Structures are given as structure tokens and as C-alpha cells.
Amino acid sequence: MPKPDNPNCHGIEDCPNNFGPDAANYEKSRSQYPSALASDVLIAAALPLNASLLEIGSGTGRATRLFTGRGYDITYIEPLAEMATVA
After folding, report:
1. CA within 20 to 30 Å of 79's CA: 2, 23, 41, 87, which one?
2. Residue of 87, 45, 37 lying closest to 67 (CA atoms)
3. What's the mean pLDDT in 71-87?
4. How far is residue 37 from each of residues 46, 56, 66, 73, 87, measured CA to CA in Å?
5. Are 23 and 43 in contact (CB under 8 A)?
6. In percent, how much of the chain has pLDDT > 70?
7. What is the dihedral of CA 8, 30, 80, 41, to 10 degrees?
């Protein structure tokens, strides 16, 4: 993750402080998002069922999993291979 005090950190390859190398531990130790979060987002967005969703920077898929099984087609993009593997 970019550090606010590092103006030279423009992407994951420039910034050594990302979770990629420790993706499995990140997934294991990070708390889950509340399931109501997905409901709140979907209500606020007023999306019809079967809408296609795009998530950019999905990490290990924690938020993505909140939306699965709710009738939406989800495409997610994760630039860190280690995080995408866990997802």
C-alpha cells in the first residue's frame, strides 16, 4: 500500500509496503467485513438483479465474496498475483 509520506510511490512495483508477499497471512488475520455492507452498497446503488459488477483492486476477495450469491455477475481485477491467488 502506498505510504502517504512517500511521494515516489506511484504503483505496486515502486512501493514495497504492499500485502502481496504476505497475502495468505493477510487473509487469515484480517477481520471480515460485515455482511450488511453489501446490502447497503447494493441498495444505495439501486442495481437491478443480474447487473454486472466490476471490482478493481480486489485484494484477497473479502469484499468480492460479500456480493457473490446475490445474483450479480462479478469481475474482479487484482494487480498483485499473490493476492489474486488467494482470492
Report:
1. 41
2. 37
3. 85
4. 14, 17, 8, 18, 19
5. no
6. 75
7. -90
13: CB partners within 8 A, 6+ apart: none
Rounded distance, CA 82 to CA 85, Å?
A: 5
Assigned C-alpha cell, 39: 446490502
Q: Where are the domains of the chain?
A: 20-86
Give the CA angle between residues 2, 57, 87 to the nearest 5°.
Answer: 120
State pLDDT tens for residues 7-49. 555 555 555 556 666 777 767 777 788 889 888 998 999 988 8
Grid cell for residue 57: 483492486
